[in-house]
Structure prediction request, 465 residues.
Amino acid sequence: MREIAVDQITEAVKRLCLLANYRLGEDVIQKLESAEREEKSPLGKKVLQQIIENDEIAARDEVPICQDTGMAVIFVELGQDVHVVGGDFTRAIDEGVRRAYVEGYLRKSVVSDPLFNRKNTGDNTPSIIHTSIVPGDRLKISVLPKGFGSENMSALKMLKPSDGVDGLKDFVLETIVKAGPNPCPPVIVGVGVGGTMEKAAELAKRATCRRLGEPNPDPRYARLESELLEAINRTGIGPAGLGGTVTALAVHVEYYPTHIAGLPVAVNVLCHAARHAELVI
Amino acid sequence: MSEVLIHPPLDDETVKRLHAGDTVSISGVIYTGRDAAHKRLVELIRKGEELPVDLKGQIIYYVGPTPARPGCVPGAAGPTTSTRMDAYTPALLERGLKAMIGKGQRSPQVVETMKKHTAVYLAAVGGAAALIAKKIKKVEVVAYEDLGPEAIYRFHVEGFPAIVVIDCYGNNLYETEPQKYARN
Prediction:
């Protein structure tokens, strides 16, 4: 049994929130640069140049890439041989979020009640925490500050098994076309297929944080990803929705076994500010 | 693609010269406002009360900036999705608002009211928040400080970059441009 103190968790979460908000991953920057080279629309090219310049300024000056510094989505893989000591695990994570958002000049965008009293909690907590217990004695933390321009354009549908691959493609495409300029294209499209309703949604979210350009290891799903990417880029929506040939930087599909009667499909849209940072304790 | 320099407040003649597809560079004063501030402004209008800002000829930028680091003005300040303001926009256009800066589609009702009152809709690049912040030279709170990032601020901007997406004639770049690049 390995002991990990809650203070270490708080510090790690804080560091990851700041890092993710100021600096995009190398994979995202490379994709944006190749998109700028490939884009056929002059206005689309100009938009991509602004985005790339923006991301350079943000990293250099430690200014948030986007003013919507998101709701903090946190994936934790907790080794079953880890003993968390010194306090409450969930509170430790939220304390890390609080410190990052308050001390790091990030925007607080969380309201305490969705319906009746939409009062800002003032420190961007609570976060959304997904924990899985895995073999080993390590703790892996991934932080995704998720903006709602793109989150609002996400969708879930319980398809019929007979809808099959074509039904899935139609639904994904319909979701992206309906979103148009709103989610800040070029986007990253996470698709979760199978499981139950909430499983599909979680898979879709996880799919958005896969390293860009890394295909699904199953060749059938990898082919589906490239076909979807091509179809989305044929819509003409383009950078910022102002027309062009690059609407999505990547499509990632994750799947899970499902029920004989169902085919749940969730589409989670992520903007070009694809913020994500992780570390292992 | 021509770049037009504009200096608010705007009159009808200036707005009429702007066409969908033009890029503009704004210098002068613009006001911020998003969901909660819009709600309050429209409640005041309904009650027949005075607004904290005279909207005549003004530009509203849909933004909720991040807090400023000491010595910085402001933090990051990119546009938010305009659709959420659609329900409130016609009432503000009737009060003389001449331009909105945001991102994303507007409702048919907003576009009709823009045509009627000679107003223009501009897009800033969503997610270009650090770049845009460089164009904002001074920030003052005008109203609703309790709303934090959703308060109404006065931004003094220099060379703020935007694109005319919907002009006062109803031409809409979000409808015309994607069609040119769509491949079936």
Notes: The first helix of chain A runs from residue 6 to 22. Chain A has a mean pLDDT of 96. Chain A touches chain B through 48 residues (CB under 8 Å). Residues 2-20+65-146 of chain A form one domain.
